[in-house]
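fwd from M.: "can u put these together and see what the complex looks like"

so here's what she sent:
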Amino acid sequence: MHSVEKLFILNNEIKLEAEVLQIKKETSSCVALMCHPHPQFFRV
Amino acid sequence: MYNNVVSGVFNSFVKKDISCMRFNFRGTGNSSGKHTSGEGELSDVKACINHLTRSLRFDRVFLCGYSYGAAIGCSTINYSEKIIGYCAISFPWDFMGLKYKELSQSKKPKLFIQGNRDNLAIYENFENYYNFYLEPKQYRIINGADHFYVGFEQEVAEEAYKFYRSIIV
């Protein structure tokens, strides 16, 4: 079981809260990027 | 960072040892900034893609988004050749307008997941929107699910995983 790393990604002056699981490249070079809903839109 | 649908898919991928990342848009959770009309959020997704492909040096990126995250996330499908396809869960065409329908058009593989009781991403309009998209494309109807997928998280995660597996080979 691998551990999920918490980090912030910088987009100009904006800091984006993120979590990433990075499997060693020997086994995977593909990553899934998942986008959350926006609470201001749907209250989810 | 918690949403039952995204967490369902994310945790499923983690358990299967699939590299994955999730993030909060600007102005959400512990992300800084404020909500914009969409342009800022599109750049948020692109910043994440850049981080994955340039800093972490992934060769391929699979996009998965739920609701607003589907509209924004999937609209970056043509941003990079390294993006191989997307899974859109309850794409809110009815709320988000035609702009995101156009931006999410692509010849890359696409999966649309839709609940047949969804009255926000309106189920009755789904087929019309789906028909707009180019092949290759697929859809899955989750019977009994509304926009929030309570109790259907695992079924959604399994469909996203099967599609992911089908396009990375």
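replying to her w this: The beta strands of chain B are 20-23, 60-66, 83-89, 110-115, 137-142.
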